[in-house]
Amino acid sequence: MTEIYFDCASTTRPEREVLDVFQRVSLEDYANAASTHAMGNRADRLLEKARSQVASYFSLSPQEVIFTSGATEGNNLAIKGVAYHCRSWGRKLITTKAEHPSVLNVFRELEKEGFQVVYLDYGKDGRLNMEALESSLDEHVSLVAVMAVNNETGYVFDTKKVYDIVHAKSRAKLLVDATQAIGKESLSDIAYDLLTFSGHKIGGLKGSGALLRRKDVQLDAQILGGGQEFGYRSGTAPVPLDCSLAAALRLALRSLPERRAKAKALNSYLRDGLSKIDEVLLLSDENATPFILSFALREHKGSIVAEALSNRGIYVSTKSACSSREEGVSYVIQNAGYPERIARNAIRLSFSGKEDLEEGRLFLEGLGQVLDRIRKED
Ligand code: PMP
User: Fold this and answer.
1) Known catalytic residue at 322
2) Count of alpha carbons within 13 angstroms of residue 71, beta-carbon side
3) Ligand 1 in contact with 151 (CB < 6 A)?
4) pTM
5) Average pLDDT by consecutive 10-residue portion of the chain (378 residues)?
6) If residue 11 lies in a helix (H) or strand (E), which one and from where to where?
7) Ligand 1 center from residue 59 Cα (angstroms)
8) Are 296 and 347 in contact (CB under 8 A)?
């Protein structure tokens, strides 16, 4: 059975070169980077080289790169780190209703501790309510968190505009969760004070990631210990993983134009095919990233269709992978203004940019067969 994997926003297959780096560093330079002997120094040099490489892609200095286990850890550290550091004057925080649970659940926790959190709305066109952002900003806001690309619908939020508004109207810092944007959107389109991403979404390894923190952003560390990662993330540095992240980023950025063009072609081919199916309602608007295409089946539960597709070797997501095992509706889609029924019936296709049109054709064929069967059973 040919398998079709349209679930790259959940995770991607690691690049062979990334695995080679991981293996080589693991086997040859396995010393603790904090050890003072020659072998430790060698590991430390590799770690710092990886840091400098990551920094250079973002035009940052190495001190502005904190290696993490991924975006979840990065988001927790950035949000709690800034909120706690600024708590004497900043009791107000702003985010959007579309954020990933690794952002939203941290804000909910902070609300319980007495912080006020404003959750910004957005529309079906994926546009954030900038007027609400402007009117919510005041001298008590320490942090604004807005994702670059939404993981369920592919909405692209205008972080440059958000950045300008935040900096014009307050002394708050802007955290951008760029997990679905790195290696997909142009880095020059993303403005931030803090930025998070995960390696495994870009052909890297699970458990690797980084938090970028511009020099003037002050944070309280959340993991205390030996003081690694400039004191922000104690624990023995996973040098092989950190080197693998630098390699994954290099490869993803190098292949970006080519993959983006391929994703665009596949996306418009699928949009075309899907719009010919009566039951389908496209949810990703034309401005969404080409790497994510979300749609709903008006009358059929997304989870049932996804399971039937999976039985045919076609892998897609309903809601985000992190929560799709729970029965329920997508809050991202519901908050955009769709009824609960649509938010329950959503299916997400997501690509790496390596897939070809033939896979798109097979997907449409498989979906057609699944819908035929469901219609007969109804
Ligand atoms: N933010 C976004 C937008 C995501 O899509 C994800 C992964 N689904 C995360 C954060 C969390 O990433 P990880 O699970 O690698 O920590």
Assistant:
1) yes
2) 29
3) yes
4) 0.97
5) 95 98 98 98 98 98 98 98 98 98 98 98 96 98 98 98 98 98 97 98 98 98 97 98 98 98 98 96 94 93 92 88 58 95 94 98 97 85
6) none
7) 23
8) yes
